[in-house]
Fold this sequence. Notes:
It is a single chain. With 410 residues, the protein is an alpha+beta fold. The protein folds into 2 domains: 6-54 and 283-406, no CATH class; 59-273, no CATH class. It has helices spanning 6-19, 21-55, 75-82, 89-98, 151-155, 165-171, 214-221, 236-253, 269-312, 314-322, 327-364, 372-398, 402-406; strands at residues 63-67, 104-117, 120-130, 143-146, 160-163, 181-184, 187-195, 200-201, 204-205, 209-213, 228-232, 265-268. Strands 2-3-10-5-7-6 form a 6-stranded mixed barrel. The chain has a two-stranded antiparallel sheet with strand order 8-9. Helix 11 runs antiparallel to helix 12.
Amino acid sequence: MARVNMSESVSMAMGSLWSNKLRTFLTLLGIIIGVFTIIAVVSIIQGLNNYVYTKFAFFGANDFSVSKFAMTGSLKEYREMIKRKNLTLDDMRSLRKQCRSCDLIGASVSTSRTVKFRNQFIKDVETRGITHLDHMIGSVLELERGRHIQREDEEHSRYICIIGTDITEKLFPYLDPLGKWVKIGPHNFLIVGIGEKKGKLLGMSQDNYVRIPITTFHKLYGSRRSININVHTSSQEQMEIAKEEVRTALRSRRHRSFNDPDDFSFASSETFISMYRTATSSIYFAMVAISSLALVVGGIVVMNIMLVSVTERTKEIGIRMSVGARRMDILFQFLIESASMSTTGGLIGILIGFIIAKLVTAATSIPSTLDPTAIIVAIFVSGSVGIFFGIYPANKAAKLNPIEALRSEQ
């Protein structure tokens, strides 16, 4: 009777929590905030991880691009990159002759324009000039209907275009767009193809675009813009070889000496994933820091409440000791109570974090996934906080003098 077992201690702890609901809520608030922050952030980041590794591979595992500007860099580096020579269609044609490991080489260049049909229009539509091979490289463009841009369209700078489903849905809700003329800026273009719907990527539509021949793009908007040269290879090994061949050929064309750095940059699906990892890792560690602070505050509050509990139950402790309870039994009892309190806070935090993650998903289309490992870690951490911050109150209770405890008025 004197000794306290695990189930009895947990039952007593739950009874104490239920009998003092407001105090319990205020006690566990810090732990709840810490755990639900971690769970919500981890759920969203894990969902994004799964999403990114599938969607950001859109550039093709064996594909890469060469451009004037790197995708990342400081302001100082950007200023240096502005001074680089533009990449041109002549560079692309030269690479087609020199790169033996390159299966396909295309090019693209982009701007934003208003697209109009009759009285309806859409602003800031991505208007990309592409070569006739570019739709097969990197972000492969599949068509719902119609045809792709062909070599003859490129050679004769024809005013034809392929449109994304955003354009179809907003400008042609009740009409078949194929064979219709739209205005891209002030110029009329014949629609020859409709792209398959890709949906959103991190909340941004991938279907708000028009594609036109790159020579038509240069004719209308000038050829002073640097192009992206896009390369497809047969394997990862071939891609690395192709990169070196492209680097050698471009450095030769651009007269770079041995000690000069490259004045162009490579990008692949791994580049996008690395950018994502860099962006999310800082967010993740910031949230972990905030959550850790909340857990520490919550642990201090738990310790304070357990000290109050020891004072309130001094006579009860004396009675238990007088009928044979050991100091270890008293220590064990209060440790279980503090761990039960904090674990309860952790479970509530997990539930709230999961709900918040799903609400974020519903509101923004950002995916979320709750890994069972994260749940186990959250329960373990919250329970550990209770044990760590419960050691002092439990030790104080265990060291009470039984006779003095029995004399207590509490």
